[in-house]
Amino acid sequence: MVITLLENHYLYLQSYMQLNTTVPWGRSLQEYQDMFLLRESELQSSILACADGPASFNTEARKQGAKVTSVDPLYQFTAEEIKTRINVVAEEVIGQVKAHQDDFFWTAFANPEALYQQRMRSMQLFLDDYAMPASSPFYISAQLPELPFANKQFDLALCSHFLFLYSEHFDAQFHLDSMHELCRVASQVRVYPLVGLDNTPSPHLGLIVKELSRQGHEVKQQTVDYQFQKGATQMLVVNTAP
User: Fold this and answer.
1) What tens digit of pLDDT does each residue of 131-140 get?
2) Of the candidates 29, 19, 24, 65, which has an alpha carbon nearest to the alpha carbon of residue 49?
3) 225 and 37 Cβ atoms separated by less than 8 Å
4) Which of 3, 64, 72, 123 is the most exposed place for a label (fewest CB within 10 A)?
5) Other CB atoms within 10 A of residue 64 CB
6) Is 235 helix (H, G, I), strand (E, B) or coil?
7) Number of domains making up the chain
8) Which of 238, 242, 144 shows the shortest CA–CA distance to 189?
């Protein structure tokens, strides 16, 4: 398994239903704010965080008054099961990061150890919240390209480190169907990054932009304040048609 797959998210293949094939790896609220250029006022919107994994974005944002729903097939498992899996893979992940440091920009994090500490902190915040019965409505077990939500249920949908990143694993039709679904459930969609695991622009990006524009959506690529993976400097922003 290549290093960028391990660091960038976790193994999120459509066919996976067993926890022992996943590599959980979660990000913080600050990273989401930088990746998606989230303003403080936007945290008061209704937000869908898609393919969210064990990120602490949901719990950290809700503590600031945000209305966030996270969706991921990982949520079919208990907090204890996810924690056990994190403990199994975390050292391997950071070991590979250390072995391939030149594949990343070390500006957001001073070094691999700082990255490791941040990731473990974020995932522990997630686990603490996820384990609480009162938090269950905020974590929905589902996956693209079919989501269990009403049309325009959310003001904003965010998709971090899944679409476009795994272009080698999911074809153009999957990406198009997934973007259609995100546009169905949210008034605006933001996706980051726009490069694949090889750090080059996704081969599906042009088709997606063309098709969404043809359907009346307003589509643009926007430079963000976050870069860890080389080449990952932009997000896709879609203001969806009514």
Assistant:
1) 999 999 999 9
2) 29
3) yes
4) 64
5) 11
6) strand
7) 1
8) 238
Let me know: does 212 contact 179? Beta carbons within 8 Å: yes
Residue 61 sits in a domain whose CATH number is 3.40.50.150
Domain with 81, as residue range(s), is 3-239
Tokens 């077990």 belong to 141
Find tokens 């990746």 and name the residue: 35
Instruction: Label the pairing between strands 234-239 and 67-71.
Output: unpaired
4 pLDDT above the threshold of 70: no
Written as one string, the DSSP assignment of 66-108 is -EEEEE-GGGGS-HHHHHHHHHHHHHHHHHHHHHTGGGB--SS
Per DSSP, which regions of the chain are E strands? Answer: 46-50, 67-71, 139-140, 154-160, 186-192, 218-223, 234-239
In whole angstroms, give the CA distance from residue 120 to residue 125. Answer: 9
Residue 127: which residues within 8 A CB-CB, separation 6 or more?
54, 79, 82, 83, 86
In angstroms, rounded to a whole number, what is the distance separating the alpha carbons of residues 99 and 48?
A: 35
pTM beyond cutoff 0.85: yes
